[in-house]
From TrEMBL:
<protein>
    <recommendedName>
        <fullName>Large-conductance mechanosensitive channel</fullName>
    </recommendedName>
</protein>
<dbReference type="InterPro" id="IPR037673">
    <property type="entry name" value="MSC/AndL"/>
</dbReference>
<feature type="transmembrane region" description="Helical">
    <location>
        <begin position="64"/>
        <end position="87"/>
    </location>
</feature>
<keyword id="KW-1003">Cell membrane</keyword>
<keyword id="KW-1133">Transmembrane helix</keyword>
<comment type="function">
    <text>Channel that opens in response to stretch forces in the membrane lipid bilayer. May participate in the regulation of osmotic pressure changes within the cell.</text>
</comment>
<keyword id="KW-0407">Ion channel</keyword>
<keyword id="KW-0406">Ion transport</keyword>
<comment type="similarity">
    <text>Belongs to the MscL family.</text>
</comment>
<keyword id="KW-0812">Transmembrane</keyword>
<keyword id="KW-0472">Membrane</keyword>
<dbReference type="InterPro" id="IPR019823">
    <property type="entry name" value="Mechanosensitive_channel_CS"/>
</dbReference>
<dbReference type="InterPro" id="IPR036019">
    <property type="entry name" value="MscL_channel"/>
</dbReference>
<feature type="transmembrane region" description="Helical">
    <location>
        <begin position="12"/>
        <end position="35"/>
    </location>
</feature>
<keyword id="KW-0813">Transport</keyword>
<dbReference type="InterPro" id="IPR001185">
    <property type="entry name" value="MS_channel"/>
</dbReference>
<comment type="subunit">
    <text>Homopentamer.</text>
</comment>
Amino acid sequence: MWKDFKEFAFKGNVLDLAVAVVIGAAFGKIVSSLVDNIITPLIVMLTGKVDISELYLTINGTKFTYGLFLQSIIDFFIIAFAIFIFVRILMKFKRKEEPTKVETAAIDAKEELLKEIRDLLKEGK
């Protein structure tokens, strides 16, 4: 059982996923800092001292801080856009590495010809 677990845990996919989770968490902190320390102050500056994080609504003594929710939405869109750009770049590199269909068709045609030659040589003996 331990051997099976080691094989599972140390496969490339599991390690890649673990690295991606750690990097993603760190990236999330960076984006949160960007929103909290740069974007929100810019919005405050442009709107005339309205801090998004301090926006709230009080109903029957209950405080709903929808400003913090808006900051989380901004975080989400920045992270989603960054991931989108990253995946597009990876897909462009991947497309360059894949052989074109014309090349594989030419190789397949050559293989067929070689098989025919082999079969004719076998019949001739």
